[in-house]
Sequence to fold (166 residues):
Amino acid sequence: MNSFRSKLKPLKGLKAVVDRLRRRGNKIVLANGCFDLLHVGHVRYLAEAKSLGDLLIVAVNGDRSVRRLKGEGRPLMPESARAELIAGLECTDHVIIFRESNVERLLRAIRPDVHVKGGDYTSDTVPERAVVKSYGGRVAIAGGPKVRSTRDLIKKVKRVGGAHGD
Fold:
């Protein structure tokens, strides 16, 4: 469990790791998301993101950010639990929690070689595309077409739970 927590980094610590590894020639990859209810689509997305470089940093939306993006009742789990779940994945090297609505500030600070988004985007619809291009990075789409969503899983759980009186 402590090894999972050691993957959680504040920005200053993360920048130091990135700078050191970049000097060694490593390719830095950043992926991000809410990860409110971890499912196979998330795992496929992050595993493919890792295959695009040497170091995978996963930025997890903070609680307020999730609420702004997804609405009341979300997130289902607090940011610390979501970050620890993502840190527990073998493909994840480091995790950072960000509180803004998007990762532009983090992208400017870390300047990953590759910024990866899931299959619900195209390279043209990635909101942070201009920021990534401004420092010479590239945008990639990973995880295949989006066929699962946390929203759909929540609806299914509510239906099943309601049918059983839980």
